[in-house]
Write a structure and sequence with these properties.
The chain is of the alpha+beta class and 180 residues long. Helices cover 28% and strands 28% of the residues. It is built from four helices and eight strands; from the N terminus they run ββααβββαβαββ. An eight-stranded mixed beta sheet has the order 1-2-3-4-5-6-8-7, with helices on both faces. α1 crosses α2.
Length: 180
């Protein structure tokens, strides 16, 4: 699995691109805004409280790309590629690189516009076709109705008997690659 060169992804409306240090202010917002993080429970050491934390986090994301541990895209509108409005990632890969977890966030100003649905479709496609994943998982808070709807709309199904050992508020969805 190689993430170099970085795979930019374009959709009808979106450009999914690499997150740069110059994106630190929006990353701080996405990782600290009360609406965006309402259903995300992060341990204290993983919280982003200031620009310095945001820069450190971006460096970490880019290091993970370099070492093929995970890949995170900044979601931008195609006509304004300099401004990230959300992020989406494939991470937490299984040892055999056949299963990955998807994660995402979006600026609330862009909710209910189909943006995350459009981005998620492309990342599922990338994961299954380019990375040859057999399964993509999504951990989401049991009260996050928007996320649950998004996942179900994209073919994910709830795994009722599986628990997130790190967060009892989470429920787990899966999507299997029909071609694997």
């Amino acid at each position: 699995m190689k993430f170099k060169p970085f795979p930019e992804i374009k959709t009808e409306r979106l450009l999914l691109r690499k997150i740069e240090l110059s994106d630190c202010e929006v990353i701080l917002f996405l990782r600290s805004d009360k609406t965006v993080t309402k259903f995300i429970e992060r341990p204290e050491n993983r919280r982003t409280k200031n620009i310095s934390d945001a820069i450190k986090f971006i460096k970490e994301l880019n290091e993970y790309i370099e070492t093929n541990k995970s890949i995170t895209w900044g979601i931008t509108l195609k006509n304004d590629p300099n401004i990230i409005i959300g992020t989406i990632c494939l991470w937490n890969f299984s040892k055999n690189n056949k299963i990955a977890e998807v994660g995402y966030d979006l600026d609330p100003k862009f909710h209910k516009k189909g943006i995350m649905n459009e981005a998620l479709k492309m990342i599922i496609d990338f994961g299954f076709k380019e990375l040859k994943l057999e399964k993509i998982e999504a951990f989401t808070h049991n009260k996050n109705e928007n996320s649950k709807r998004l996942l179900e709309k994209n073919g994910f199904y709830l795994i009722k008997n599986r628990k997130d050992l790190d967060n009892e508020s989470n429920i787990i969805f899966e999507l299997e690659n029909a071609n694997s």
